[in-house]
Design a protein that fits this description.
alpha/beta, binds 1-O-pyrophosphono-5-O-phosphono-alpha-D-ribofuranose, ATP_PRibTrfase_HisG, D-Maltodextrin-Binding Protein, domain 2, 5-stranded mixed β-sheet, glycosyltransferase, 211 residues, 9 helices, elongated, 29% strand, ATP binding, amino-acid biosynthesis
């Protein structure tokens, strides 16, 4: 039996995924050692390997088959547009992709004005404004602290993740439109899906029962 390899997005998502896996009897003791500098962890008994990657890199590892299975946020999956099968909504990491800004930006959205949109997710923003809303906008790519953009006058609105809404609230900004709901998803390499279909289907059945 060959190893099935999992790529997990570093951070809270990986922690929640490992907790879920524990519940269906998949453990990886090696991974719990906080002092370890190891990058890849093995469960010899079940012939599984796990590694942690930057969230946006997870679909890349899965598309190329360096990982058979990945867990990433729906935001990352939509933005990266990799050739992977999305097989399961894991239900955690729930939040929304939203257009946000000051209340004053509402008429600019309603009247389809040529506005500037700052975001870490240019593909998602482009798809929403061009294909869903049919509004021509200028997309400005940022790498973080997106809420700053309307405050300092870089853009009229932002497209960003809203979880509790507290970042927006503390900065006088609001959700103006919802783009789509988000949560953690399991993705599978298309070739692995065929070659390892029995093992992957068994895993999915167990996960579905647990969720
Ligand atoms: C995310 C997101 C928002 C914030 C939303 O940023 O981009 O800024 O969390 O969460 P809230 O609705 O609960 O306030 P993150 O902390 O990941 O950092 P970033 O600004 O570097 O993207």
């Amino acid at each position: 039996m060959r190893y099935l390899t999992f790529a997990l997005g570093k951070g809270r998502l990986a922690k929640q995924t490992l907790e879920l896996f524990e519940k269906i009897g998949i453990t990886c003791e090696e991974m719990k050692d906080k002092d370890s500098r190891k990058l890849i962890f093995t469960n010899e008994e079940l012939k599984l390997k796990f590694f942690l990657a930057k969230g946006p890199d997870v679909p890349t590892y899965v598309e190329y088959g360096a990982a058979d299975i990945g867990v990433a946020g729906k935001d990352t999956i939509l933005e990266e547009r990799r050739k992977v099968h999305e097989v399961l909504d894991l239900g955690y990491g729930r939040c929304s992709m939203c257009v946000c800004g000051y209340k004053e930006a509402v008429p600019l959205l309603q009247h389809h004005e040529l506005i500037r949109v700052a975001t870490k997710y240019p593909n998602i923003a482009k798809d929403y404004f061009y294909n869903t809303k049919h509004q021509t906008v200028e997309i400005i790519k940022l790498n973080g602290s997106i809420e700053l953009a309307p405050i300092v006058g870089l853009s009229e609105v932002i497209v960003d993740i809203v979880e509790t809404g507290s970042t927006l609230k503390e900065n006088g900004l609001e959700v103006l439109e919802e783009v789509c709901p988000l949560s953690a998803r399991m993705i599978v390499n298309p070739v692995s899906m065929r070659m390892e279909s029995t093992r992957i289907k068994t895993l999915l059945t167990k996960l579905r029962a647990q969720l």
